[in-house]
Amino acid sequence: MSVVKLDGLVALLEGFPALTGVDLHVEAGEIIFVKGPNGAGKTTLLHLCAGLIQPKEGNGSVMGHDLWSERTEIRKKAGLLSHGTGLYGDLTVLENIVFWTQIAGVEKSEIENRISWALKRMDLNSKLQSQKVRSLSVGQKRRASLAVFIVRRPSLWLLDEPHAGLDQAGREIVDELIKESVKAGATVIVASHDLDRVLNLSTRVVNLSGGSVVDV
Amino acid sequence: MTDIWLIARKDLKIEMRSRVLMNQVAPFALIILVLFGIALDADQKSLRNFASGLFWISVLLCALMAIARSMTIERDEGALVGLNLSGVDPSGVFLGKACAIAIQLLVLEVFLGVGIILLYGSEVEDLWLLISTGLFACIAVSALGTIFGFLASGLGVRETLLPILLLPLLLPLLIGATRAFDDALGIAAVNGWNWFAFVAGLTVILTGVGVAANYLIVEN
User: What per-residue confidence (pLDDT) applies to B10?
Assistant: First the structure.
């Protein structure tokens, strides 16, 4: 069964067509690299797969759930790493991670283990953990954002420019995380302009242009 | 209930850290009280007669700041998208945000209450009526404010649209709460508890509307 199944999907943003008939099937364990110029619809495609945008036309399902009527189920299972960090600037890194872990409904008995694993994995030491997010550099914020992302352990990873703002070590951590997640049974869709890096990781490339898939 | 508590606690923690309420909104409230006094060029007896209305107008203006701030917290780094994606019930988001705003407004009401007593020489004749009206009206303002805060935020016009949308709809509440306070402060011979019942009814309706419409509001 396809993890992501999109047939003739049309999506509007602010009334303008952002996706104009996308057909895409993604199987479990795949790492899909979505490429395309600015405005091609990469981010919209990821948001659509996360159940954040109501399709205007077409049929779609993610992990067996209808794209819109069962979006709550999709949202619980999918993770979206977007341009914004999604962090609260006046809270510390640790407070942010604790909040997002609790709000995601992670079992109480698991919370502590998951948080310490995510912090260690993203190389966020105790000094950084106690700093307000507002005071962090762009790269450090991105690491904290990634820690929040992985702590939920999503089944479908939707990554929008995951390497942006990270140093070399951070980029390598992201690559390792993607590989590890697939080994653990997750499926990954990455939108990126970092062609060389993502091409090495991906199992398939999807080329978007003008809101539709021009090449798979 | 857990989601509501988590979101309200998070907002209040952010407020404690940023001190926007204490360092910006509270001084703004004080300035409003003083400016009204100067603009009306009135003696303390006249100001006492206007105290209820001035109190509630000040509360509403401060509420606009608190609501805008509450929405900015979620919008700045795209945290609202994260909340939607976390699978949390939108009514939890609505009630959590509204609770945090209500608690902040309660603190402001106490501050403004002390302000009208000290600056205008108001005297409290029915403390329970004063407390009950203050509590329910601030819940109503928070509920309606959260609904329109999300709507204005989603429309992209944000802070500029919020007062235009919110203040006309708060007019019945302003009238009810002012009349109840008129009685509680011994300004006018009205049945304050009847007006309190009106305010309480509005509070129940507005909170109900917010919970019922939360899917549309939070997601958009």
Answer: 95
Q: Are residues A99 and B76, on separate chains, in Cβ contact within 8 Å? A: no
Please state the domain count of chain A: 1
Mean pLDDT over A68-79 rounds to 89
Cα A117 from chain centroid (whole Å)? 19
Chain B: which residues have CB within 8 Å of chain A? 2-3, 6-7, 10, 13-14, 17-18, 73, 76-79, 81-88
ipTM of the complex: 0.85
Alpha-carbon distance of B136 to A135, in angstroms, equals: 38
Residue A9 sits in a domain whose CATH number is 3.40.50.300
pLDDT in tens, A44-55: 999 999 998 889
pLDDT tens digits, A193-205:
877 777 788 889 9
Q: How far is CA A211 from CA A34, A36, A55, A72, A188, in A?
A: 12, 10, 13, 25, 20
* Nearest-by-Cβ selection for A52 from B18, B73, B81: B81
Tokens of A20: 């104009």
Range among A82-91, A124-133, B127-136, B149-158 rated most confident: B127-136
Interface of A with B (CB under 8 A): 50, 52, 72, 75-76, 78-80, 82-91, 95, 99-100, 102-105, 132, 148, 152
Which structural domain range is residue A111 located in? 2-215
Q: Tell me the residue type at B154.
A: G
